[in-house]
Amino acid sequence: MISNSDTAHESLLIHIGTHKTGTTAINRFLKGNNKNLANQKACIVELSPKFRSLAKSIPKINEADVGKHSEELSNELHKLIDKQRGRRGKLFNKFFIIWEGFSGSAKKGYPENARLASALQKATSDCKVNTRIIMYIRRQDDFISSMYTQIVRDGESKDILEYIEQLPPDNFNWYKLANNYSNSFGKKNLIIEPYGRTFFPGRNDILINFCRHAQLNPDKLEFENYKRSLQSNQGWPRHIVEIARLLNRRLDKAAQRKMRSIFDLIASKETYENYEYFNKKDRIALMKRFTESNSLLAREYLPSSSSCLFPEAEARFADNPDQTKFEPSQEDFLETLQGMLNNSQITFLNDSLNNSKPTNKAQIYNWLSQLFSRATNFLQARKK
To answer: What pTM does this model have?
Structure first.
């Protein structure tokens, strides 16, 4: 039995995401350092399927049922933390929870997380641990591009503009998300870190940043597992995404899974490489939706950053504002690709998918490259 005096100096740092900001790498980094963390009296708390299910249900249920679900959430978290406390007696005094689900549904634009923030605050309070929240946020145009790529991987066939249009109002509002957690945990217990190449240029920089907030000594931790996590969690280049989206309409779920395995094998994207789904005009128009909320967040939560939350966005848009560059429109690009995906090419790809381990990677990649080369040449010739 753990007494109140035993838990008085325990701390809990909860990483709530957001998605596509290195969360997987941080999680794997901590798990790969279990023994090293124990030497620093720290450990990661694994969330049970029951806890995740309860947390996901709270934003959706009737108001009358929130109290009951919050109580169940609190009891489950208590069990999970007590399980870690009991592993080595009083050894641990620093606990970490890493789960993007605390931000809400990324596919829906994080429309509702106030209830979840409140329920989580009650749960951690009942566990009698000093709790802080950390959230990493990404510039919305890059975030939406990365999120869209993920849902195409999962089988989506809408184009990116259709995806954006079906999102609820006030989507990906980082100021609103910050306020919801600040209202529940207090502003002093909320840590906000902008994410991107400007902020974390080195491969291990985000891990070192997390260690600083977690009061861990990075010199006593191993970073090699982070390299492996990068290799297994990379995105696709833009042309691979577009072909996958078109093929999602024609392939069943089993074939889609095989297609993903092939595309993972033949192509990958660097961590900060831009997808370039938007031309300059559309990108600026999209970011204008978030100008006010981003400025409010910067002023109220990150006073040292002035009123510009993502400085690299300002620099990118200000550089050569009158520069013109050929960019086929989304409509032209997709229309051309649609015509090129004839039956023989679909048959060829399906034949490749039937092999669990494709042996002719070069042939598949050449087919993809030729397809997009023909599309680009066709559009450039038509524009002249």
So the answer is: 0.80
